[in-house]
Specification:
Aspartate Aminotransferase, domain 2, Aspartate Aminotransferase, domain 1, binds pyridoxal-5'-phosphate, alpha/beta
Length: 400
């Protein structure tokens, strides 16, 4: 009998990934960044400078410093949150992670066991939905309006979970440039949400992945800041969207004892130190200017996409202009199933995220679609949207 290693696999694995087929010509999936705006010159200079100055520290795990991560980077994050989000954070309240995906995994690992209730926004990051499903959490979707989480529905869900004797472990929210809706929760709504959660045994997991790319309003203080006396919030952020996703640099902000507990679960001997050194070196000199430039490029791309959607889809699609970030969240008529168009679209080089994957209730999400305008050029956005409209029209005529 020949040896078959798959016979030895754990039996509870998720399905294997399919072979990577390359990035299609009109890719509106995922959360990729604008190529022209990766600050290559600034990063090159930062690499050289920091390696010349401190490169020998790479001889030692964690650069010989705290397992929370490179001190210059943690210090920059404290300063950035102070200046950009009126948020005060101490150095020992920041843990550097390998992208904020690792932050999601660590916080879930800290808090969740199968059967736990969690509340997330009804439309939310697909990577979080799939994680929670895999962990066996019971996921409740809280309704959203243009200001974000609806407090009345939140209260209803909190009460439902408590009455089962299993208070929700956390509310996961992306308040500043929500993924996928692109909305920003105003200050008053933040306060209402915190009030609605008073007296509950439920934490708040605030994901600010896109917050540095906000253009539609002034940035409100973080929930972490607003809740400072109560200490109910664990916060995470990332440099993926503001600098580059392939760097894999993210962070968790939490009270020091919480981070010390999380460190017991972060068994990777530290996130990549060179990336941390380079981001710290680059960002402490250039972050604001870079983020401002990138944000205005993304705003212009959002406008190109909105115009193309209006031109090619007309009344058949509904959307709000995002307040920042890289996504447009589209709603089609009741009964449309956007996933049904994926194969035909892919054959024409167009890829999009069907709404079901970004929705707690896949039926509710079926007539929705997320398009990322971060990576494609303005020309590709125009042509890709036109192709998508043609494909959906032809396929609908053909009986979809
Ligand atoms: C809301 C949200 N959180 C976290 C992540 C993970 O990003 P990264 O691991 O690149 O920091 C993403 C990625 O798209 C996201 O959209």
């Amino acid at each position: 009998m020949s040896f078959e290693i798959s016979e030895l696999y754990r039996t509870d694995l998720p399905p294997a990934e399919s072979q990577w087929g390359g990035i299609p010509a009109f890719s509106f999936v995922g959360g990729n960044n604008d190529e022209e705006n990766v600050p290559v010159a600034g990063l090159t200079e930062a690499v050289t400078r920091v390696l010349q100055r401190e490169g020998r520290k790479l001889a030692v795990y964690n650069l010989g410093g705290s397992p929370l991560g490179h001190e210059d980077l943690r210090s920059f994050i404290c300063q950035k949150l102070g200046v950009r989000a009126s948020t005060s954070v101490d150095l020992d309240e920041v843990l550097i992670t390998s992208g904020s995906l690792q932050a999601l995994d660590l916080v879930n690992n800290l808090l969740l066991v199968p059967g736990d209730n969690v509340i997330v926004e009804e439309a939310t990051y697909g990577g979080m939905i799939s994680r929670l499903t895999r962990l066996g959490a019971v996921v409740h979707g809280v309704s959203l309006d243009q200001s974000g989480v609806r407090p009345d529905h939140l209260v209803e869900l909190l009460e439902r979970c408590s009455s089962q004797g299993r208070p929700a472990k956390y509310l996961y929210t992306i308040p500043t440039v929500q993924n996928p809706t692109g909305s920003c929760m105003p200050l008053e709504r933040r306060v209402e949400i915190l009030e609605a959660m008073e007296g509950q045994q439920t934490a708040i997991f605030e994901d600010d992945c896109y917050a540095d790319l906000l253009w539609g309003c002034d940035r409100p203080p973080t929930l972490w800041e607003l809740d400072a006396p109560n200490r109910r919030v664990i916060y995470c952020g990332s440099f993926s969207k503001s600098i580059a996703p392939a760097l894999r640099v993210g962070y968790i902000v939490a009270e020091s004892p919480v981070l010390q507990q999380i460190l017991s679960l972060k068994t990777d001997a530290g996130s990549g130190a060179l990336e941390q050194m380079v981001v710290a070196e680059y960002a402490s000199a250039h972050f604001d200017k870079h983020a401002d430039r990138l944000t205005s490029v993304l705003k212009a791309k959002a406008e190109v996409m909105a115009e193309a959607l209006e031109r090619h889809f007309g009344d058949s699609v509904d959307f709000e202009m995002p307040q920042g970030g890289i996504f447009m969240w589209l709603t089609f008529a009741e009964g449309v199933d956007t996933a049904a168009f994926s194969t035909e679209a892919a054959a024409s080089g167009v890829e999009f995220n069907a709404g079901a994957g970004w929705s707690v209730d896949p039926h509710w999400g079926a007539n929705k679609m997320r398009l990322c305008f971060g990576n494609p050029s303005a020309e590709s956005i125009r042509e890709g949207v036109q192709r998508l409209a043609q494909i959906m029209e032809m396929a609908s005529d053909g009986g979809h």
